[in-house]
Amino acid sequence: MNEQRWLSQNYFVFFITWGVFLPYWTGWLVQAKGMDVTEASLIMGFGLVARGASTLFGFPILYKYWSSHRVILFLTLMSLAATVLYIPSSSFSILLFVTIVFNAVYPALLPAIESAAGVLVQQGNVHYGKSRLYGSVGFVVSVFIISLITGLWGEQAILWSMVVGLSFVLIMSSLPTPAVLMENPEMKNPKETRSARGLWKVKSFPIVLLVVVLLQGAHASYYNYGYIYLQDLNVSTYYIGIILNVAVIFEIFYFAKADHWCKNLRTSSLLLIAAAGSTLRWLLAFVIPNVWVFILSQSLHAVSFGVAHFAFIRYVTDHLPKQQIPNAQGIYSALALSWSTAVLTVAGGFLYDISPGLSFLGMCAFTVPALLIIFVTRKRFSY
Prior knowledge:
Blueprint lengths: L2 H29 L5 H29 L2 H18 L6 H14 L3 H14 L5 H26 L2 H19 L4 H4 L7 H5 L10 H13 L2 H13 L4 H25 L5 H21 L3 H8 L2 H19 L5 H30 L1 H6 L2 H18 L2
Helix pairs in contact: 1-2, 1-5, 1-6, 1-7, 2-4, 2-16, 3-4, 3-5, 3-7, 5-15, 5-16, 6-7, 6-12, 10-13, 10-15, 10-16, 10-18, 11-12, 11-16, 12-15, 13-14, 13-15, 13-18
Keywords: Cell inner membrane, Cell membrane, Membrane, Transmembrane, Transmembrane helix, Transport
GO molecular function: lactose binding; lactose:proton symporter activity
Membrane topology: Multi-pass membrane protein
């Protein structure tokens, strides 16, 4: 079978659902379920904690006993079941419980697909960027579709869109899968070969992980306050959605060429580019509070997020054995994409109350140390 096509299709279908969840879920809790903003934020906050704990601890355990295909199928079924639980739920306590359950299984699908991608890339049959760009395309398509259907049928359509999207993910999970992803883990010495403790024996892994935690966490102010920042710049709601999608479009362009452009670059070189681009991006938002400058800075999302993410995937496939890829992806998802963002969201919110631009400048307190760490360690640890 065509492994490149399989991975591209799975990225596309999953990110269709991610485009429903990431931008709209909090608003859906407020508009469709009657929660106030504080209640919805609290619910999503606990969900973020559950997401981090699940991907850090539960997700790698599944890979000790199941194949990649079986893990993806299981997580999809559980996600669909948890989504259905939202339908009759209305009280704060029940919605909190369902959201914790939902976040314990659904977001883990992302590192599961990324782990499958790592294995396929390591086998030498797949170009990561060419498939990952379809995820970004799926996200853009999803945001566009949801904006249309909510205008026609209201916020209730958000939940049903997730049900339909996950149903398609389930169908994709049931189709023929690359043979390497159907293989069950070898259980001769599971503690030695699959334990996450083995990651820390790779001397450069903690350094690379720390750098991507700093760089990905630094997107917290943008993810959480970019919308209201544009409102403060007197941008109409219609154009805000278009402006925010500019970042994803540049991300798509980058992933389309990433395998070619980055072919001869080391992980440390990619991380240097990401850290420098990220620092410039947040400085621009602070120094020049102008909508056109903000739009220009959106092009740097391909660097601040795209290059950093690609660098970690490259590192995992080049430096780690196949058995450790799920562990690395679980830790990356929990620390870099969940908990660091949650912590820095609080810091960014405090700074935003003082001055909107300060919330972006504050993110440089994490990107600049990332730059220094790379400069100090890249030669010594050869990554």
